[in-house]
């Protein structure tokens, strides 16, 4: 069984993508905070399903134990039953028009996007707050921080404000995201390792159940 199978059968998924922040209270009771690292995605996945102790399911336990904390896997939230809305696109354009966009430049947590020949009106919502995007050749997914409307397009471009800094091209195996198209919403993925692998308990009738949640953490190179 892959990590994706665990996520697909999830009962609950808790998502944490808050930036790492340090805080200290001074003697004068003034709170000081500072960012200590990028916002990294973490997923706590509860799996309350009871599995039959069959050849396939028994084998999946060995696969999970072999992967443990050391093996990375690419996953998405889009195939989880009843949870496709999590990464759903909230804008008004169709997939054909979104596929025409590509990345003109980037700096910090900002991307400049070329619309090319995409068709839309000034009143269209190109991206809404919380929409997921991912450069086509990148391992990293981002969320939109400010809505973008058709009226925001100037000289064939618009700016995307994202929830975290764009990770350097050198962290993407040397790939440069400039000129790349965008994966949007349920086409986005995450590269994770399993930080917490729960034990399992055998149940009467040749069944078993996991004893706690899985914790998957995004791997930043």
Describe what you observe in this structure.
With 221 residues, the chain is mainly beta. It has two domains: 3-76 and 189-218, no CATH class; 84-187, Elongation Factor Tu (Ef-tu), domain 3, CATH 2.40.30. It is built from three helices and 18 strands. It has helices spanning 3-8, 55-67, 95-98; strands at 12-16, 20-25, 31-37, 42-46, 51-52, 73-75, 102-107, 110-114, 125-127, 132-135, 142-143, 148-149, 157-161, 182-184, 190-196, 200-203, 207-210, 214-218. A hairpin with a 5-residue loop joins strand 2 and strand 3 (31-37). The mean pLDDT is 88.
Structural class: mainly beta
Number of helices: 3
The biggest beta sheet is recorded as: 5 strands, antiparallel
In N-to-C order, the SSE pattern is HEEEEEHEHEEEEEEEEEEEE
Q: Strand order, main sheet: write it out.
A: 1-4-18-15-6
**Separation of the first and last Cα atoms:** 25 Å
User: Which segments are poorly predicted (pLDDT under 50) over 5 or more consecutive residues?
Assistant: none
Shape: globular
Number of domain units:
2
**Radius of gyration over all CA atoms, rounded:** 20 Å
Describe the structure using short key phrases:
three-stranded antiparallel beta sheet, mainly beta, single chain, 221 residues, Elongation Factor Tu (Ef-tu), domain 3, 3 helices
